[in-house]
């Protein structure tokens, strides 16, 4: 074989290796930032901040800032490790094909190292900056999201979102623990609010994502039980969510402002879930899943509104105006 043939073969092999390694060495800051799932992280930051500010004990502004920063990094670490483990199905699903790993900008090894480092760093620094109870809950949150949800539940049971939703529900408890050093009924109720909200929120998304989960062989409820059953589950979980959400009005973190906001948004959410349940696939396909997309968008606004109302109540209490 000539030297030219050897060189051409070598170059071809390098191209193939480059395709397998997926962009090694080409990743930039924006790619690693994308690994943190910034949209999800924004929800983590907001609910954790509300938990911190709603707590009865004041926190020094600097401690509060660094605590929220490390909670955000912990949430981002979970996202990076999730993308590392799910790289195979992310390449299949249209919704995730542009993520850094399937798009060829970050290797799986880089994502694993990045996520593992941030996990340890965020937990240790939160423990040093605030307290080890908060750090322990953060560590458990990362473990639950990565190991229990991503590695186990997501690919084995249609209850993946129901049980796995706990991972996204811990941030307000972490924020509360930063301020108080412990857990209380109020922080548990904030956990329950997010926990109960998660299934109807994701199932609404699953309805209009069509075949993504089926092609990736992820046992989402739409795949295992069908779309009609999923629509019923959305309605049932939304009805169960409403009394939990409204009930917070009558605790120490609630008040008339929260009650008004909660009544309005729970009525809208229940109405949306009812509209989804009444529709069949023919109707949904005819209008491009307009109702399902509308309810999914409403569900995002719903959670921010609920926690925003808790934040308003805690701010009013500073001036002797909040609560009952």
UniProtKB/TrEMBL annotation:
<comment type="pathway">
    <text>Porphyrin-containing compound metabolism; heme O biosynthesis; heme O from protoheme: step 1/1.</text>
</comment>
<feature type="transmembrane region" description="Helical">
    <location>
        <begin position="256"/>
        <end position="274"/>
    </location>
</feature>
<keyword id="KW-1003">Cell membrane</keyword>
<feature type="transmembrane region" description="Helical">
    <location>
        <begin position="132"/>
        <end position="153"/>
    </location>
</feature>
<dbReference type="InterPro" id="IPR000537">
    <property type="entry name" value="UbiA_prenyltransferase"/>
</dbReference>
<keyword id="KW-1133">Transmembrane helix</keyword>
<protein>
    <recommendedName>
        <fullName>Protoheme IX farnesyltransferase</fullName>
        <ecNumber>2.5.1.141</ecNumber>
    </recommendedName>
</protein>
<feature type="transmembrane region" description="Helical">
    <location>
        <begin position="188"/>
        <end position="209"/>
    </location>
</feature>
<feature type="transmembrane region" description="Helical">
    <location>
        <begin position="295"/>
        <end position="319"/>
    </location>
</feature>
<dbReference type="GO" id="GO:0008495">
    <property type="term" value="F:protoheme IX farnesyltransferase activity"/>
</dbReference>
<comment type="function">
    <text>Converts heme B (protoheme IX) to heme O by substitution of the vinyl group on carbon 2 of heme B porphyrin ring with a hydroxyethyl farnesyl side group.</text>
</comment>
<keyword id="KW-0350">Heme biosynthesis</keyword>
<dbReference type="InterPro" id="IPR030470">
    <property type="entry name" value="UbiA_prenylTrfase_CS"/>
</dbReference>
<feature type="transmembrane region" description="Helical">
    <location>
        <begin position="160"/>
        <end position="182"/>
    </location>
</feature>
<feature type="transmembrane region" description="Helical">
    <location>
        <begin position="230"/>
        <end position="250"/>
    </location>
</feature>
<feature type="transmembrane region" description="Helical">
    <location>
        <begin position="106"/>
        <end position="126"/>
    </location>
</feature>
<keyword id="KW-0808">Transferase</keyword>
<dbReference type="InterPro" id="IPR044878">
    <property type="entry name" value="UbiA_sf"/>
</dbReference>
<comment type="similarity">
    <text>Belongs to the UbiA prenyltransferase family. Protoheme IX farnesyltransferase subfamily.</text>
</comment>
<feature type="transmembrane region" description="Helical">
    <location>
        <begin position="62"/>
        <end position="85"/>
    </location>
</feature>
<dbReference type="Pfam" id="PF01040">
    <property type="entry name" value="UbiA"/>
</dbReference>
<keyword id="KW-0472">Membrane</keyword>
<dbReference type="InterPro" id="IPR006369">
    <property type="entry name" value="Protohaem_IX_farnesylTrfase"/>
</dbReference>
<feature type="transmembrane region" description="Helical">
    <location>
        <begin position="40"/>
        <end position="56"/>
    </location>
</feature>
<dbReference type="GO" id="GO:0005886">
    <property type="term" value="C:plasma membrane"/>
</dbReference>
<keyword id="KW-0812">Transmembrane</keyword>
<dbReference type="GO" id="GO:0048034">
    <property type="term" value="P:heme O biosynthetic process"/>
</dbReference>
<comment type="subunit">
    <text>Interacts with CtaA.</text>
</comment>
């Amino acid at each position: 074989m000539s030297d030219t043939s050897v060189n051409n073969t070598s170059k071809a092999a390098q191209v193939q290796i480059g395709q397998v390694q997926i962009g090694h060495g080409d990743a930039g800051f924006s790619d690693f930032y994308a690994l943190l799932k910034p949209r999800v992280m924004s929800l983590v930051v907001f609910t954790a901040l509300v938990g911190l500010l709603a707590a009865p004990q004041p926190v020094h502004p600097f401690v509060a800032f660094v605590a929220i920063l490390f909670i955000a990094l912990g949430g981002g670490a979970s996202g990076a490790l999730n993308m590392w483990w799910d790289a195979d199905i992310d390449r299949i699903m249209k919704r995730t094909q542009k993520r850094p790993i399937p798009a060829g900008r970050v290797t799986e090894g880089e994502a694993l190292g990045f996520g593992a480092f941030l996990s340890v760093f965020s937990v240790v620094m939160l423990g040093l900056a605030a307290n080890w109870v908060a750090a322990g809950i953060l560590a458990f949150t990362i473990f639950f999201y990565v190991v229990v949800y991503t590695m186990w539940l997501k690919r084995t049971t249609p209850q993946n979102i129901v049980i796995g939703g706990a991972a996204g529900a811990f941030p307000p408890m972490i924020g509360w623990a930063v301020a108080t050093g412990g857990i209380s009924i109020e922080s548990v109720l904030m956990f329950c609010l997010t926990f109960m909200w998660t299934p109807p929120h994701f199932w609404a998304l699953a309805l209009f994502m069509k075949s993504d989960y089926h092609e990736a062989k992820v046992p989402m409820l739409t795949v295992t039980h069908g779309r009609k059953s999923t629509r019923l589950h959305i309605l049932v979980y939304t009805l169960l969510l409403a009394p939990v959400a409204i009930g917070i009005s009558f605790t120490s973190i609630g008040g008339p402002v929260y009650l008004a906001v909660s009544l309005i948004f729970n009525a809208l959410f229940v109405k949306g879930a009812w509209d989804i349940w009444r529709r069949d696939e023919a109707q949904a396909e005819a209008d491009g899943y307009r109702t399902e997309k509308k309810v999914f968008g409403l569900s995002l606004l719903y959670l921010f509104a609920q926690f925003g109302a808790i934040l308003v109540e805690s701010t009013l209490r500073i001036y002797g105006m909040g609560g009952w």
